[in-house]
């Protein structure tokens, strides 16, 4: 594993149960539709989290930086299963909220470290 991407935000008001039902119906297909090099880990409600990080978090494992390009291309294709499901899922999240965040994490054992000799 080289990277984990985290996309987090607030579910639109009154849409939490709909998101839960959508994931129950579509999560397996969404996971299987990710392009090569990407693996959907899951979508989670935050029980404990830092202030301002949102209530719902999606995690994706990526093999390398280039996988981000594959995810972006697949997401732009409205005819692909991934693009269709991604766009449906994104509709549940308030992307204008101050709590909408994205982060990319790299394994400590894979990271390049500077300034320590």
Protein model, in words:
The chain has a single domain, classed as Alpha-Beta Plaits. The chain is globular. It contains three helices and five strands. Helix 1 runs antiparallel to helix 3 (81-90). It has helices spanning 16-33, 67-76, 81-90, and strands at residues 3-11, 38-45, 56-62, 93-94, 101-106. The longest helix has 18 residues, at 16-33. The chain is α+β, with helices and mostly antiparallel strands.
TL;DR?
The protein has 117 residues and is of the alpha+beta class. It has helices at residues 16-33, 67-76, 81-90, and strands at 3-11, 38-45, 56-62, 93-94, 101-106. It has a single domain (3-106), classed as Alpha-Beta Plaits.
Primary descriptors:
alpha+beta; Alpha-Beta Plaits; 117 residues; five-stranded antiparallel sheet; 3 helices; 5 strands
Question: Based on DSSP secondary structure assignment, what is the total number of beta strands?
Answer: 5
Output the helix-strand order. Answer: EHEEHHEE
Instruction: Report strand %.
Output: 25-35%
- What's the tally of helices? 3
Structural class, by secondary structure, is alpha+beta
Fraction of residues in H or I helices: 25-40%
- CATH top level? Alpha Beta
Shape descriptor reads globular
CATH architecture descriptor: 2-Layer Sandwich
Low-confidence stretches: none
Which fold name fills CATH's third level, the topology?
Alpha-Beta Plaits
Mean pLDDT over all positions: 92
Q: How many structural domains?
A: 1
Largest sheet: 5 strands, antiparallel
| Gyration radius from CA atoms, angstroms | 15 Å
């Amino acid at each position: 594993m080289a990277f984990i991407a985290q996309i987090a935000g607030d579910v639109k008001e009154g849409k939490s149960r709909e998101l839960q039902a959508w994931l129950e119906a579509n999560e397996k297909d969404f996971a299987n539709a990710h392009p090569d090099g990407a693996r959907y880990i899951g979508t989670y409600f935050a029980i404990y989290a830092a202030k301002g990080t949102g209530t719902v978090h999606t995690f994706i494992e990526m093999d390398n930086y280039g996988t981000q390009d594959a995810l972006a291309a697949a997401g732009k294709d409205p005819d692909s299963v991934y693009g269709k499901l991604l766009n449906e899922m994104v509709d549940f999240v308030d992307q204008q909220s101050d709590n909408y965040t994205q982060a990319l994490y790299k394994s400590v054992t894979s990271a390049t470290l500077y300034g320590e000799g």
